[in-house]
Amino acid sequence: LNLLPKDIATTIITVGDPDRVNQVSSYFDTIEVKKGKREFITHTGTKNGKRLSVISTGIGTDNIDIVLNELDALVNIDFDTRTIKRTHTQLNIVRIGTSGSIQPHIPVDSFL
Would you place residue 109 in the very low, low, confident or very high pLDDT band (cuts 50, 70, 90)? Predict the structure, then answer.
């Protein structure tokens, strides 16, 4: 992801399309970090005094799994000792975008 622990907020918005990162962060009051590696683009800034990050995941569940695991490692692994930190940081992750469903009780155009 090409990120350091200080580059991300504890509230993270994920989007699939890297182009959506600019769209979302355009609503931020400030942007302090703009980084990217392949399809993984990250902007971190503030909105109404709240620090937020928005990161693209690319396509598919495999990429989402990579992003979520990497974000968890950034906040919960001590990179100097390569050990799990004693105190864990919980991230608040919100997904903006579309998703498919094959469950009959979830109608098309549902908000989940």
Answer: confident
The whole model's pTM is what? 0.86
Position 110 pLDDT exceeds 90: no
Q: Is 49 exposed, middle or buried (0-12, 13-18, 19+ CB in 10 A)?
A: exposed
CA distances to 27, 44, 108, 110, 112 from 14, in Å: 15, 12, 21, 18, 15
> Tell me, what's the pLDDT at 98?
75
- Cα(60)–Cα(57) distance, integer angstroms: 8
What does the H/E/C string look like for the chain? CCCCHHHCCCEEEEECCCHHHHHHHCCCCEEEEEEEECCEEEEEEEECCEEEEEEECCCCHHHHHHHHHHHHHHHHEECCCCEECCCCCCCEEEECCCCCCCCCCCCCCCCC
CA distance 33 to 41: 10
